[in-house]
UniProtKB/TrEMBL annotation:
It comes from Mucilaginibacter gossypii. The lineage of its organism: Bacteria, Pseudomonadati, Bacteroidota, Sphingobacteriia, Sphingobacteriales. This is Lipoprotein.
Length: 333
């Protein structure tokens, strides 16, 4: 019972704020950013500030006080709250877009921004209550190469405004959104740089849904083009393939994407006849590989800051097979 009384005391400011948002009911519609009435928007911002603060400090009791009964009952939300909390601890976030919504029916509806050019989007959501509010947050540092979007959805119940969901997902990779990566991948594909196109389109698919409601208007063919690039890569190379121009004929057997603090970049796995224990010899051979790899895989070093290599003693027979290997990073620029 002591915990209950303590939480009740903490709830007073939040309860007053939630109740202050009860008034000013509008006709059905959606209002975005500056269209939201000033006083109501200020109160929503106070809710957001409290949410981000509680997520950052990991105060589970205060977060629970903000949640709707349905959200509290769904224990899977605990993992989502943990993930969002991890995100706000690594970067400062600010509002990117926000929507105040008055639903006509409790059914699926659509809101969005059609004025963002290639990054125009719509969000399809369920009208949980008559009035709702959605806030989309992005890192304040716009120069971060990899950015995650936090989405908070609130609804007005008869017991006040409550959080109904909060989640985090990838918004940008290497400074680009999914549609921007799709356009880049399409250019690479049209140049017949199939392997490089596949890697770029793979990244596009990783950030195509920054939240559970999001749908881009301009990347609808990303999945199909990725499959086309993957099939073209298989036909062109027939892995493992010899790296011409390097003594010992190392063979590339797999390519993929790998992340570091600067972004996502290609990783090339190859077999070598050099003794893996002799790391200086492995590095020396890798220098020669770096000089010719773009001939084997056109575009693979183009517009990249890094490329990763993993030299293996033999070809793995399966995903679970462990082989001796030595990993290297080549800083291209």
């Amino acid at each position: 019972m002591k915990t209950l009384y303590q939480n009740t005391i903490k709830l007073i400011p939040f309860t007053l704020l939630a109740l202050s948002l009860q008034s000013c009911i509008k006709q059905p519609g959606a209002w975005r950013n500056d269209q939201i009435p000033g006083g109501k928007r200020d109160d929503f911002h106070k809710l957001n500030e409290q949410l981000l603060h509680d997520l950052r400090t990991g105060n589970s009791d205060d977060i629970s006080n903000m949640e709707s009964r349905e959200m509290l009952d769904d224990k899977s939300n605990l993992r989502q709250i943990e993930l969002v909390g991890n995100a706000v601890k690594t970067a400062d976030y600010d509002i990117y877009d926000e929507y105040y919504i008055v639903n006509k029916h409790r059914s699926t509806d659509t809101i969005g921004n059609a004025s963002a050019g290639i990054n125009s989007y719509k969000m399809i959501y369920n009208g949980i209550t008559h009035e709702m509010y959605m806030a989309l947050f992005l890192p304040k540092d716009k120069n971060l190469p990899n950015q995650e979007m936090i989405t908070a959805l609130y609804a007005k119940y008869d017991y006040g405004w409550k959080l109904t969901s909060v989640n985090v997902n990838t918004y940008k990779i290497n400074g680009k959104t999914a549609p921007e990566l799709y356009e880049l991948g399409k250019k690479k594909y049209n140049k017949q740089h199939f392997a490089d196109a596949r890697l770029t389109l793979e990244l596009a698919l990783q950030c195509t849904a920054p939240n559970d409601y999001w749908h881009y208007e301009h990347d609808t063919d990303a999945g199909k083009l990725f499959q086309d690039a993957a099939e073209a890569t298989v036909k062109q190379y027939r892995f493992p393939v010899v790296i011409d121009g390097v003594a010992g004929e190392p063979r590339v057997f797999r390519i993929g994407n790998q992340k570091n603090s600067h972004g996502w970049f290609p990783v090339i796995y190859y077999t070598t006849k050099v003794n893996i224990a002799d790391t200086n010899a492995v590095k020396s051979e890798n220098v020669q590989i770096g000089k010719v790899i773009d001939k084997l895989l056109p575009g693979i070093t183009e517009d990249k800051d890094y490329i990763f290599y993993s030299a293996c003693s033999k070809l793995p027979l399966g995903a679970a097979t462990r082989v001796e290997h030595f990993d290297m990073t080549d800083k291209l620029r």
